[in-house]
């Protein structure tokens, strides 16, 4: 059988994405971001994101079809992110996908955003192995997943209990007066600082939270970044109260080291304890240079193969939705029908 031609739609946050794949081959990945409209607010404003999706959807769809050189009639299946994400933003993509499905009669697949961040891996480096772990780090979510079958068997091993990793970068950048979004600028400034200058707290790494391999604690694979953010705020305040110059580069480097230390060590621990021999990294924070460096080193010494899809596939996009849906189609999964709702909560 020939590989299915699948069109995927993503609208869970500030990116309007339409991607087209044929099986594991990427044909188009059109993305329009409303980030510019959120910058002056220092964070994504849901109402603005939803309106931007309405404006961007049809041009993004046209662009993807043009790039792929296919028509809607030729598509075998449609897919859309149904959650988790911002509910108003999700609803725009879901409504658009349902309209296309009704107008064309094509089967429609509701796709989980987190699993799509993993499924996109097939577009860069080919098929994913059976015992696969995933570390997802973005502005909206931070998780460790165990993937036994992309189409049907994915377990959430751990997640943040407060802020997402990218959100922590954004909040700390604001505290340091570095602007928004904070990830890229902290990544850059941290290179000039000493990551050991200040020992910031590593959230949920104490034995009372992690337990042991035999007797795991409730938060063994979970994350918390709000205490870290508070520690950075207190540190900055102390310098200011003393009338001293704030050592921005040292604070940025030390903050980044705390985030990256925790996410890499917990991801590697989860892989070891669940027999997962490959780890896939996804989400916007996957662009972080220190995260890539430390994760590569820790995976190498633990004998874990690391897969990092190229940056345009790590940030939110439509191709990841199409790629996962194609896997579902090829595994014989049934379409979702037209009645499903956008679901903003965790899976
Ligand atoms: O995946 P994404 O584009 O959107 C979602 O949040 O879902 O991720 C954006 C997040 C922002 O919080 C941004 O600060 C962070 O990813 N980010 C980074 C870097 N580039 C983007 N964080 C750390 N280092 C980076 N180089
Ligand atoms: Zn995402």
Relevant terms:
binds 5'-O-[(R)-(carboxyoxy)(hydroxy)phosphoryl]adenosine; binds zinc ion; globular; five-stranded mixed sheet; 347 residues
Question: What does this protein look like?
Answer:
This protein has 347 residues and is of the alpha/beta class. It has 2 domains: 5-121 and 314-330, Nucleotidyltransferase, domain 5, CATH 3.30.420.40; 130-308, 2-Layer Sandwich (Nucleotidyltransferase, domain 5), CATH 3.30.420. The chain is built from 12 helices and 10 strands. It has a 5-stranded mixed β-sheet, with helices on both faces. The radius of gyration is 20 Å and the shape is globular. The model has no long low-confidence stretch (mean pLDDT 95). The chain binds 5'-O-[(R)-(carboxyoxy)(hydroxy)phosphoryl]adenosine (KG4) and zinc ion (ZN). Zinc ion is lined by residues 113, 117, 138, 140, 283, 316. Zinc ion (ZN) binds at residues 113, 117, 138, 140, 283, 316. Pfam families: TsaD. This is tRNA N6-adenosine threonylcarbamoyltransferase.
């Amino acid at each position: 059988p020939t590989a299915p031609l699948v069109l995927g739609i993503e609208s869970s946050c500030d990116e309007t994405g339409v991607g087209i794949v044929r099986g594991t081959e990427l044909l188009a990945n059109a993305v329009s971001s409303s980030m510019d409209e959120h910058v002056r607010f220092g964070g994504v404003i849901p109402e603005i994101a939803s309106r931007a999706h309405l404006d961007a959807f049809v041009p993004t769809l046209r662009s993807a079809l043009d790039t792929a050189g296919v028509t809607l009639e030729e598509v075998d299946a449609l897919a859309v992110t149904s959650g988790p994400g911002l509910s108003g933003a999700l609803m725009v993509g879901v409504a658009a996908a349902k309209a296309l499905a009704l107008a064309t009669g094509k089967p429609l697949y509701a796709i989980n955003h987190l699993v799509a961040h993993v499924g996109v891996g097939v577009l860069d480096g080919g098929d994913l192995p059976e015992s696969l772990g995933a570390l997802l780090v973005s502005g909206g979510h931070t998780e460790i997943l165990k993937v036994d079958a992309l189409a049907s068997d994915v377990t959430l091993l751990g997640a943040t209990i407060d802020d997402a990793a990218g959100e922590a970068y954004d909040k700390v950048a604001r505290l340091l007066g570095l602007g928004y979004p904070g990830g890229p600028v902290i990544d850059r400034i941290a290179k000039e600082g000493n990551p050991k200058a200040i020992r910031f707290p590593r959230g949920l790494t104490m034995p009372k939270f992690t337990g042991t391999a035999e007797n795991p604690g409730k938060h063994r694979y979970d994350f918390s970044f709000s205490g870290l953010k508070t520690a950075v705020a207190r540190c900055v305040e102390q310098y200011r109260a003393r009338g001293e110059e704030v050592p921005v580069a040292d604070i940025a480097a030390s903050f980044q080291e705390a985030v990256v230390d925790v996410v890499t060590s917990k991801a590697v621990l989860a892989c070891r304890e669940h027999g997962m021999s490959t780890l896939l990294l996804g989400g916007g924070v996957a662009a972080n240079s220190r995260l890539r460096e430390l994760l590569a080193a820790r995976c190498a010494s633990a004998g874990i193969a690391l897969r990092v899809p190229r940056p345009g596939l790590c940030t939110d996009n439509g191709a990841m939705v199409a790629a996962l849906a194609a896997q579902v189609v090829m595994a014989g999964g049934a379409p979702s029908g037209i009645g499903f709702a956008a679901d903003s909560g965790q899976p």
